[in-house]
Design goal:
292 residues, two-stranded antiparallel ribbon, 11 helices, 2 strands, 3% strand, globular
Length: 292
């Protein structure tokens, strides 16, 4: 095997793991704070990708269009999430998890139809900026520039989410409210808006993941289904509500898929799921401490 090809394939797997992590981090953040299993999270990721395409196209698929899309797509998804949370979800927090799953599943179907109505069923794509196009040579290996960019953004999001959760007033209140909502409310804090902020932040990460994946794959209807299944598996093996667990789970998922392509291409799709099964057999509650 060509070492350069092996390293490149592993880096591509790590780069995809970073996109998985960003989406999974938003899902696990919502799970950890609101206790809401948001099945519609993948649809918001898909909306982020389509919005990124629209913004990039408005700028003629230029480099400026990509950077504007990267900033504006998560904000658009955050606005959609705020409408959903304030208008619908805020009235259901006291319901059992099965009710929340059914609600977010129905929401996923509605969002998918809206995407089809607005953008149609055609495949779309986004051109990466010139500075991130092509490959660079490091230590004798050819590495895609966009993969290096994703390897930078993923850990940056992880650190940012950790800082938000542990070092800011909003994060500390959100963590306290997830444990005892009534007690936090007695202190005069508007818990409803704290939950709204947590939901919006988690969904904005889904939008960011959609914008980041846009230059690497075709944007189409149905792209939400794969990502939501993989994200839930990553959240489960990492530990519900644990950001660092989601990062480790994403790396395991992405790298195992690359190794599958390397050694057994015909069974590559099964490799990540085999890793999930092994992890759950050894650590049924996840790799790191669960928030539940």
């Amino acid at each position: 095997m060509d070492p350069s090809a092996v390293i490149s394939l592993l880096l591509v797997g790590l780069a995809r793991a970073m996109i998985l992590f960003i989406v999974s981090a938003g899902l696990t953040f919502v799970l950890g704070v609101l206790r809401v299993p948001n099945v519609a999270h993948g649809s918001l990721y898909m909306i982020g990708a389509f919005v990124a395409f629209t913004i990039a196209t408005a700028f003629g698929q230029s480099s400026a269009g990509f950077w504007f899309a990267l900033i504006l797509a998560p904000l658009v998804v955050a606005a959609v999430a705020l409408i959903i949370e304030r208008g619908l979800l805020s009235h259901l927090y006291q319901r059992e998890h099965l009710m929340l799953i059914l609600f977010t599943f129905g929401l996923m179907l509605i969002l998918n139809d809206l995407v089809k109505l607005i953008w149609g069923a055609e495949y779309r794509s986004v051109t990466p900026p010139e500075i991130l196009d092509g490959a660079v040579t490091l230590f004798g290996f050819n590495i895609p520039r966009y993969s290096l960019f994703l390897l930078f953004v993923g850990p940056l999001v992880a650190v940012g989410l950790w800082f938000l959760s542990n070092k800011t007033r909003l994060g500390k209140i959100a963590r306290a409210a997830s444990v005892d909502r009534e007690m936090v409310g007695v202190l005069g804090i508007n818990v409803s808006w704290v939950f709204a902020a947590a939901f919006v932040i988690g969904c904005a990460l889904a939008g960011l993941g959609g914008a980041l994946v846009a230059p690497t794959t075709s944007i189409s209807l149905g792209m939400d289904l794969t990502i939501i299944i993989e994200s839930f598996l990553i959240v489960i093996i990492g530990g519900l509500g644990n950001t660092w667990g989601a990062l480790i789970g994403s790396i395991l998922f992405g790298v195992s898929q690359s190794l599958g392509l390397l050694f057994f291409p015909q069974f590559a799709i099964a490799f990540p799921y085999a890793v999930v099964v092994i992890v759950l057999l050894l650590r049924p509650r996840g790799l790191l401490r669960s928030a539940w």
